[in-house]
Give the backbone structure.
Amino acid sequence: MSFEKDDKVVLHDKHSEFDGETGTVTQVIESMFGEPTYTISFDEGQEVGIPQDQLVAADEAEEDEE
């Protein structure tokens, strides 16, 4: 699933201080290989260059918890 600017997403990256937190896509950049990478803004900061496979739509993550 690809994401667009202003989408709410949950980051899944065990090496990130924002692992498991919900943030907002602030920028989408297509890499030279044609894959998008994302800048995600959180309440306490941001992460840059996040690959699509580390993100889940926030509404999907909420459904998984139920």
In short: The chain is about 10% helix and 45% strand. The beta strands are 8-11, 22-30, 36-42, 45-51, 55-57.
